Queue: 3 jobs
Job 1
Amino acid sequence: MVYQYLNGENWRHIYIVGDLHGCRYLLDEQLVARHFDPQQDLIVAVGDLIDRGPESLACLALIDEPWFRCVRGNHEEMALNALNSGDRMLWELNGGEWFYRLRGVELVTAKHALLRCHQMPLILHIHLEDRTVVVAHADYPAAHYAWGQEIDVQQVVWSRERIDRLQSGEGESISGADAFYFGHTPLQKVLHAFNQHYIDTGAVFGNSLTLEQIQ
């Protein structure tokens, strides 16, 4: 699945969270602090639920929660490629070794959850009352956003070209939507530039986890 549509009318509050990377406890702390109501509210994640942190399995369990949505990140892509091809080197080098330490029920649970990542969209299109918000992992690799438009999958989950330009003082808005939220590149603080918001603040490296409310 490339695009998935969400209508904001279905929730009271909507939050977007940066890369979790196995840090489920940090999300849980923020949900308590925000008085998050799973019956009325929604969390949207920018991908990279797994690897490097201590709770990859607990983060994968979020996929089954009705109050949670997530786009596919490059770490989910690496996991799927490793499971499909048997070549585990790239994933292990980037934090996937936790999976190969699992045994028994945990291993089966993790494998089933990871295979479900195939069903994650690459792009989440969120229709709010007064604006359209687009969520992807690394980039929306086009100057103009359009629902269903063909895009380069590799760039959606891996590209840092746009953020590199922004950090060097260049860049421009992406037309076709009001706001774009990305993760992928760990930063000391959130980067807001034009209509783009980069919210991976490196929680797994000891920084804070960013949770931004959009509704």
Job 2
Amino acid sequence: MKMIKDRLVLLLVIGMAVGLLSACASDDASGEGEKEGEKVTLRMTWWGSQERHDRTQKVIDLYEEKNPNVEISAQFSGWDGYWNKLATQAAGGNLPDIIQMDYKYLSEYAGNGLLENLNPFIDSGVLNFDDVDPLYLDGGKLEDKLYAVNIGANAHTLVYDPSLFEKAGVEVPEPGYTWTDLKEMGQKLSDQLGEGVYGMQPNAGIMRFKHYLRENGVWLYNEDGSGLGYENDQLLVDYLQHTVDVLESGAAAPPELFMSAGTNVEQMPIVNEKTAVITDLHSNQILALEQAAGRPLALTIQPMLEGGELGHYVKPGQFFSVTSQSEKAEEAAKFIDFVTNDLEANEILNAERGVPISSKVREHLKPNLSDAGKKMFDYLELVEDYASEINEPDPQGATEIEDFFETQIEEAIYYGKITPEEAAALFRKKAEEVLANNQ
């Protein structure tokens, strides 16, 4: 997990990068493409599991085979350290041409001028979205400018192990179950599954808190990004108390069982049959989870707030963006178009990053999907019935705030170092200090 000082470094070096943009801006966006047949070298980076790396590299190989004048240098890493490395490259005017972008970082990177406006490439036909519903592109836009192309839609999900539910004699969670139902379910599972096996891996994370806020009809940030979007701190208290309750009761695994795993899929307790439920993932992760577990797992929606609003939304799983420091922006955009529309490339990717945005690609893939892939596609159809419109991208400063939540709130709650009331007050103080810069 990243420390707060790393986030401060990240924000500092992103800011420093702005001064270098005029020297590093691409000529391609103004319409000056590459000369036909000229050798082009692109750099591309992404984060993810080994499976994602292997699939993406095979697509790069395919693209190079179909475009012999293009060579793509791949830079792959896990999530940890990915953003700090990018920020350092940004400060040096050395960002890769194509970067995998996340929704929560979009405002910071686009707002600091580090991403190419892709609208000109749509107008010129380099990017073809004829088979893409605008709904799938909206998440990558700021002020009607497309800065990031969705490379796989997904949604917030709860993952469970049907075999452990059957072993425990507990009914699986059906859509419409509540937060109270989840606590009771976790307790029954822990009681029946025996020593060292628990009902759930708990989660007091910021992503899930956003879901809880949406169920309460509010959002984490206000409309102009100058403050928090909820006034009643009891919302955060109640949310965190849920995690405290399941930990204290034994319905959830103790933190030492899951904290060391981090984002390493192979070490997650549900993979190793130490928990029956993991409460906070994205639907595209079912592919890596089932591969690591070697047995069927299942997806369902998050718990609902009785009498509350719909908390789910269809989310861009990840994006590909072209950086404004690229000198080959048009060629970079051509590769993104290839990933979006090429059927053979998507057979290789197999929707590992999420459900493809092209309807033509989805129709082509679905009959031949693995069981895990079909579950992911079916889950997106299910979640549409429990979803409302996605919120605007998070404001500048959001990543600092959310990393603070992760390291100073979430972790402290797991280990009982802070009460929910103390956590709510501490978080508001920090968030308002950061967001005041947007006023």
Job 3
Amino acid sequence: MKARWPLASALALSGVALFSGSVSASTPVPGVTTTILAKSTFGKLNIKAHADPSNLWSARLKTHGASDIYVVDNKFAPGSDTGWHSHPGPSLVFVVAGTVTNYTSDEPGCPPHVYTAGTNFIDTGGRDSHLLRNEGTVLAETIAVQLLPNGATRRIDEPVPASCSR
């Protein structure tokens, strides 16, 4: 039987405690509901993965300390947004319903990047900040997998970047 949520299943098998509970961001965001689906702390990571020898695909993930890994479900009412914020590590973001528009401070003028259900994007985290907005007329939803330094604040509120008009 194929798992409906293979990532959640894999995390559960690796010892991640799955739980469901709403959490508020640093500043409450009207119209956005955030639920932590899973969180676990992993020790120092040194993962080197390869496909079979005929395939050139490989992956490398190495940390110099423990990491907190989150699986986060965000639901956006039409017209709502996250406010400008950053994360201290990368996020893999899956759009599972509706459409979200991502504005990032690391691009001059913060141009919009539109993502529809079934697409994904990476937020590299670190110094750039971003804002996700539901500019559509129906509920939008994202699932994010975040890799953060152990004990770090998951979301950091940021001012509107000077180079952005949003």
